[in-house]
């Protein structure tokens, strides 16, 4: 069964803008799927609905077999386009935030934060502050924060769009390695054809007004998965 399933989902914002749908989409457990399309086609809206950050106007959404909000919680890690780090808090405190909100015991928090920072190779920056880090490093902090609760599903909204190309290529490789290691379900929003083809097993192409699925194709894995 699917990790994420949308059935005839629409979203009309209060302003009357028909942003989405109806769309049907199923993402399998452990699958890496890209949502590709031009600005304004509803990619972010789709992710926010799946994360439970906004409510669908009609249709139904299931995440990990659960239909009713509040979804998310520990099932989902969300990486936004901007790293959205707290500037006054250390890197480790930023990564610890989701655990603190969940009242995780201190010892477990420390251990999970250390593991998440090591996972993105920022273990030496635990006590640094966001302003001391480059854009790519901040994005890795944001990824560590999304992973620290060990969610099954990672939702990523154009995470690398603001970065230079070299940093972006490196982060693409880091993300792929991580996905292969951890076996997470990833839904990755991008308007880069290159990125979608490079990263994912399946590309879902969206078109605007309102956002719909216009096409979909699978990409053969370059090496056997396991
Ligand atoms: P992106 O295309 O990268 O998702 P947008 O520029 O569409 O970014 O949106 C940035 C933010 O502004 C989002 O939080 C979105 O919800 C909000 N937003 C976008 N369009 C509108 C709109 N027409 N009215 C109100 N808020 C909007
Ligand atoms: P994308 O992520 O593909 O750029 P969005 O999901 O951000 O697309 O936006 C889809 C449509 O919904 C756009 O027309 C956008 O202006 C509109 N929109 C997005 N967020 C809001 C919002 N919070 N309020 C009103 N309209 C919005």
From TrEMBL:
Role according to the record: Involved in beta-(1-->2)glucan export. Transmembrane domains (TMD) form a pore in the inner membrane and the ATP-binding domain (NBD) is responsible for energy generation.
Ranges for domain ABC transporter: 4-226
Keyword Ion transport (UniProt): no
DNA damage is among the record's keywords: no
Keyword list, A-Z: ATP-binding, Nucleotide-binding, Transport
Name this polypeptide is given: ABC transporter ATP-binding protein
Taxonomic path: Bacteria, Pseudomonadati, Pseudomonadota, Alphaproteobacteria, Hyphomicrobiales
Recorded family membership: Belongs to the ABC transporter superfamily.
GO molecular function: ATP binding
């Amino acid at each position: 069964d699917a990790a994420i399933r949308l059935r005839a989902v629409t979203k009309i914002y209060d302003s009357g803008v028909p942003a989405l749908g109806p769309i049907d989409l199923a993402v399998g457990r452990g699958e890496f799927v890209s949502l590709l399309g031009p600005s304004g086609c509803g990619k972010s809206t789709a992710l926010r609905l799946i994360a439970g950050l906004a409510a669908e106007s009609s249709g139904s959404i299931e995440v990990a077999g659960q239909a009713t909000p509040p979804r998310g919680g520990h099932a989902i890690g969300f990486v936004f386009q901007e790293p959205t780090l707290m500037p006054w808090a250390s890197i480790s405190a930023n990564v610890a935030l989701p655990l603190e909100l969940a009242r995780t015991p201190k010892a477990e928090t420390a251990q999970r934060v250390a593991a998440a920072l090591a996972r993105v190779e920022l273990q030496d920056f635990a006590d640094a502050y966001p302003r001391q880090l480059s854009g790519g490093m901040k994005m890795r902090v944001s990824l560590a924060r999304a992973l620290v609760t060990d969610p099954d599903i990672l939702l990523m909204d154009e995470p690398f769009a603001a970065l230079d190309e070299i940093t972006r290529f490196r982060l693409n490789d880091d993300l792929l390695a991580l996905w292969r290691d951890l076996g997470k379900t990833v839904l990755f929003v991008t308007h880069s054809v290159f990125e979608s083809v490079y990263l994912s097993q399946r590309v879902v192409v969206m078109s605007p007004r309102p956002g719909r699925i216009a096409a979909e194709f699978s990409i053969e894995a370059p090496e056997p998965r396991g």
